[in-house]
Amino acid sequence: MGAGASARASVSPILTITASATTTEIPGGKVSDIFVYPIKSCRGISVSSAPFTPAGFRWDREWMVVNSRGKAISQRNEPKLALVHVDLPNEAFAEDWQAPEDSFMELKAPGMQPLKVCLGKQPELKNGFSVWEWTGSAWDEGSEASQWFSAFLGKPSQLVRFNTASEVRQVDPDYVKGHHPTLFTDGYPFLLSSQIH
C-alpha cells in the first residue's frame, strides 16, 4: 500500500485501499489511481477505493479468456482484448457486498452487442486451464460468453473464472517468501507504477 493511501479494516478478511486527493505528507508517495482488471488483459476499471483480499484487489484478474486448448490469451498475442470494456455494479466494490443472482458484469467491444455475465451464479466447473506455470480447474462462463469472445477475436475462445473454492495459485516463491495467493495475474496480485510530477 502506497504511503498516503487510507485504509479501513473490515469484519471480513478484506481491507479497502482508497485513492485520495488529500493526503498527509509522508515521504515515499501516495496512491493516486486504482485500477481493477476483472478480466485478464481486458480494459480496467478506475475506482476510488477497492477492497482487497489475500489474493489482491477484489475482482482483479478473476476471469481470463482462453483458447481452444485452455491456455490464457493475453494482449501479448491478442491486442484486441484491450478494446473490451468491462463494467461491474458500483456496489461490487463495497467491502461486504455479496453478488445476488441478478447482478452482472457487462462487456462491450466494437462491433459487438453487450454481453452480461452473471456474478451471482456458480457456472460449470471444468479442468485443464492454464496461465503461465499454473494449470487447474475454473468455472466456465458458458456458451454465450464463448461465442461472444470467439466472434470478437475470430478464433475459438472461452471465458473462465478462477475457482476460488478449491484452487490455489501461489506467487513465485523465488521472489516472495511464504504462501501468497494470486488469481489469473501474470505472477503477483499487485502492480505498482510510479509517476513523476
Q: What does this protein look like?
A:
Residues 29-156 form the Molybdenum cofactor sulfurase middle domain. InterPro entries: MOCOS_middle. β5 (49-53) and β6 form a beta hairpin. The chain is mostly beta strands and 197 residues long. It is globular and about 50 Å long. Strands 1-2-5-6 form a four-stranded antiparallel β-sheet, with no helix packed on it. The chain has a four-stranded antiparallel β-sheet with strand order 7-13-12-11. The protein has one helix and 15 strands, in the order ββββββββββββαβββ. Helix content is 6%, strand content 31%.
Shape, per Cα inertia axes: globular
Q: Mind summarizing the main beta sheet?
A: 4 strands, antiparallel
**Percent range of helical residues:** under 10%
Distance between the ends: 20 Å
Average pLDDT level? 86
Number of helices: 1
Strand order of the largest sheet: 1-2-5-6
The SS-based structural class is: mainly beta
**Estimated share of beta-strand residues:** 25-35%
Query: Which spans have pLDDT < 50 for at least 5 consecutive residues?
Result: 1-14
Strand tally, please?
Answer: 15
- Taken together, the total number of domains comes to 1
Q: From the alpha-carbon coordinates, what is the Rg to the nearest angstrom? A: 17 Å
N-to-C SSE string, H for helix and E for strand: EEEEEEEEEEEEHEEE
Task: List the SSEs and their pairings.
Blueprint: E1 6-9, E2 15-18, E3 34-36, E4 45-47, E5 49-53, E6 56-57, E7 63-66, E8 85-87, E9 104-108, E10 115-118, E11 124-131, E12 134-140, H1 143-153, E13 158-162, E14 169-170, E15 181-182
Antiparallel strand pairs: 1-2, 2-5, 3-4, 5-6, 7-13, 8-9, 9-10, 11-12, 12-13, 14-15
